[in-house]
Amino acid sequence: MNKVILTGNLTKDVELSETNSGIKVARFTLAVQRRFANADGEREADFINIIVWRTQAENCHKYLKKGSKAAVIGTLQTRNYEADDGTKRYVTEVVAEQVEFIGAKRDGESSGEQPELTPVDDDTLPF
Questions:
Q1: Range of 64's domain?
Q2: What is the mean pLDDT of residues 75-89?
Q3: Cα dihedral sign for 65, 98, 20, 77?
Q4: What is the pLDDT of residue 106?
Q5: How many CB atoms lie within 10 A of CB 21?
């Protein structure tokens, strides 16, 4: 079984892009506080990379901003690639099946503006 459930805050605004075949994909990082405090009494956070596809990606881009609280249900995925310098890089991320926006709407979140899309090479997709 591969199921991940997270609640946290976005560390920066959602990045929306589009594949060569026109599929929307959004990426963001969720800061998730650990359950227990460390030796200094502070609660540390883990920074989890999230990927969201299609209409849900557009909604995340439209309604989530840096600092927004969100809950994500998805699956854990690992992949690797060769960097420009020839080294092998490994990535672990959550592919979201559901994203719930938690908290009140902030000013400007439903402006209705069309997002600017960045092209993504279909060869980099995990499917």
A1: 4-124
A2: 96
A3: positive
A4: 52
A5: 8
The CA distance from 73 to 100, in Å, is 9
Are β-strands 43-53 and 118-120 bridged in parallel, bridged antiparallel, or unpaired? unpaired
DSSP H helical ranges for the chain: 54-63
Q: What CATH number is given to the structural domain containing 12?
A: 2.40.50.140
| Domains held by the chain: number | 1
What's the predicted TM-score (pTM) here? 0.78
Query: Average of pLDDT values for 63-85?
Result: 97
Q: How far is 122 from 126, CA to CA, in rounded Å?
A: 9
Give the position of tokens 């969720």.
30
Query: How far apart are the C-alpha atoms of 90 and 37, rounded to whole Å?
Result: 28
- pLDDT of amino acid 103: 77
Q: Which residues, other chains included, contact 48 with Cβ-Cβ below 8 Å and sequence gap of 6+?
A: 6, 8, 29, 30, 32, 93, 94
